[in-house]
Design a protein that fits this description.
3 domains, 12 strands, single chain, 34% helix, Rossmann fold
């Protein structure tokens, strides 16, 4: 199978960040409930905290103290500090009346707020990758860096990031004031920022959709950079293995996966999170030449479903992502027909 990777201007979410006057006015209308008063926007957008995505910590009070403390240090004439919470913890802050005038509502698109923001403050969230295309300053506020690194871990050291890293509110306020001291593009002021921008958003010029249409539908490969990420000529095959209890269906599936011609077929299987030793033992028997997609954890609350996918660390099985829609379909199947799915593998079919 040959898969093409299109390195174009990225995605429409980044194109929308190329805000002209008309779009900016519309975005300001969407944020009319916030206390902006023409000031420069400092957006504080941290990730969720806690040991489980399904059961995150309620840190609304801590977030309020951070916003209030930073605003007091910056003053109220030039800057306004807004809070954009992660969707999984938004409900905690939404019930805090003190945050009403600074909390960005969940129904305002993140891209709208990023496009309006002059400076972004985050911690361990990947939101800063999206903000790089704006060429505006990024500041990292990580007072709990040691504890976070010990529990959930980080991919990068603070000194590698495209912005100042701060551990106290005094340091944060100073970094924001320094970042806001010039209106020049941040890539012209900071070599590290420039390197990151060239590495991750070099082609963010607002013409992504145009190039994708040109390449995919018109076959004009010269319109953008087209990279091959796979020259595998095998026939792709995807199987859903269900709960993998010890029964005839599981035995047959394991036999098929061992006996299939792996030189001819590129085999992937979707597995659910094992609920006991029996399922774990059966999943361990999957042929190592098979790519595994799993495990699914989710919590359904109202009409929303949140999922985590974990790719087991196994040799010979490269990690693969799966569309969110399939996970949501599984959630609906479990909710509505738990009895019907037993042994049938119903729900064949994650993306911070």
């Amino acid at each position: 199978m040959r898969v093409a990777c299109l390195r174009t201007a990225g995605a429409d979410r980044l194109e929308r960040r190329q805000i002209d006057r008309v779009v900016r006015v519309r975005a300001e209308d969407q944020t009319a409930g916030l206390d902006l008063r023409g000031r420069r926007i400092v957006l504080y957008a941290p990730t969720w905290k806690g040991g489980s995505f399904s059961r995150p910590a309620d840190d609304a009070r801590e977030l309020f103290d951070t916003v209030q403390g930073l605003q007091a240090r910056l003053g109220r004439d030039e800057y306004v500090v807004l809070l954009k919470t992660h969707q999984v913890v938004h409900r905690f802050s939404a019930t805090n009346p003190a945050l009403a005038r600074v909390l960005v509502p969940n129904d305002i698109p993140t891209n709208t707020v990023l496009g309006l923001s002059d400076i972004l403050i985050t911690d361990y969230s990947s939101i800063f990758f999206d903000f790089l295309a704006s060429d505006r300053p990024i500041v990292f506020y990580t007072p709990d860096a040691s504890a976070y690194s010990d529990t959930r871990g980080t991919y990068l050291a603070a000194q590698e990031l495209p912005g100042a890293s701060c551990a106290t509110l005094d340091e944060l306020a100073a970094a924001v004031q320094n970042a806001g001291s010039s209106r020049a593009p941040q890539s012209e002021r900071d070599a590290t920022y420039r390197d990151w921008k060239e590495r991750f958003v070099a082609q963010e010029d607002g013409r992504a959709a145009e190039r994708v249409v040109d390449i995919v539908f018109r076959g004009n490969a010269t319109s953008g950079t087209v990279l091959s990420i796979s020259d595998d000529s095998r026939i792709p095959m995807l199987l859903h293995l269900g709960g993998m209890r010890s029964n005839g269906i599981t035995s047959a599936a394991l036999g098929l996966l061992s006996g299939i011609d792996h030189d001819r077929y590129d085999v992937s299987v979707v597995i659910t999170r094992p609920r006991g030793a029996q399922q774990k033992a059966n999943q361990a028997r999957i042929d190592p030449r098979v790519r595994r997609i799993g495990d699914l954890e989710y919590e359904r609350e109202g009409d929303d479903a949140e999922e985590h996918w974990r790719e087991p660390a196994r040799e010979g099985a490269p990690p693969v992502g799966v569309g969110r829609g399939i996970a949501q379909r599984n959630a609906r199947v479990r909710r509505r027909a738990p009895a019907a799915r037993r042994g049938l593998g119903i729900g064949v079919r994650k993306s911070e």
